[in-house]
Amino acid sequence: MSLRLFLAAFCLLILPVAAQAQLAPYKDDYFAYPGILKEADNGDYLVVDYSEMRDINARDATPERRVRDAYVSLKPRRAQKDLTVATPAGPVKTLAVGAIAGDASVIVIYLHGQGGNRLQGMNDYTFGGNFNRLKNLMARNGGLYLSPDFSDFEEKGEAEIAGLIAQAKASSPRAPVIVACGSAGGMLCWRLASDPQAARMLSGLVLLGSLWDEDFLSSPAFKGQVPVFFGHGSRDPVFAIEKQEAFYRAIRRAAPGYPVRFHRFETGNHGTPIRMTDWRGALNWILAAQPK
Known about the structure:
Blueprint: H1 3-14, H2 28-31, E1 36-40, E2 45-49, H3 52-57, E3 60-62, E4 66-67, E5 80-87, E6 90-98, E7 107-111, H4 130-140, E8 144-148, H5 155-171, E9 177-182, H6 186-194, H7 196-200, E10 204-208, H8 220-223, E11 228-233, H9 241-254, E12 260-266, H10 272-276, H11 279-288
Parallel strand pairs: 2-12, 7-8, 7-9, 9-10, 10-11, 11-12
Antiparallel strand pairs: 1-2, 3-4, 5-6, 6-8
Helix pairs in contact: 1-5
């Protein structure tokens, strides 16, 4: 372990856990859920109204390719860089926005699914401008947002992302780390949760149109009460919503009161949660749900 990583780990042990500030609003009116059809589990389970005609065709100038300009601000590009980060598992290319030099208030990392790359999580215009909103939330709130490439969804990719997290924590030891995984990227979310060293650095997981892993119930992250947010389309043809909802229920049964939420986008497809999830709402919930 390098001296820098050792000092970061030491700081994590001795620094008190401070209450996490909430992210300030940014274009909340544009990205608010259009309606709630059902609420359960004291607000942890929501069925969100979704309409392709309204939420894609009316929102996008070119459906699924370019959102209308009102949803986008390009100011974060001033603080955006394409970096190569040295890790014990090898170099990791990542696009970064926000507090790149360190002292970030919060760190959010997005892991793409099968066939994606680091460009997906930095595209300002696709997915209804939702990644642009995330970039703005981080840049405007002193946070750091990373969208990396990685070799695979197995051991190599896990080691690369764990190394990236460690490097980010070395520069911002007080910052909570939230890892968001889209589709097959969820395999890395669950692998990180089961790795004792990586799990200690996690403050939250976001699974968007992704999969489940029963091993999570015996993982270090589960034992550490790391909050988990699920977003899923009710018509997802890749990962059946019935199985993901069952896993959400399994977490609640295994540990009553566990910080877990599920937002079901009614009639939504595989990519709908990436387009529709309220990033500010999800991230603020995770920040407020940190173990005392």
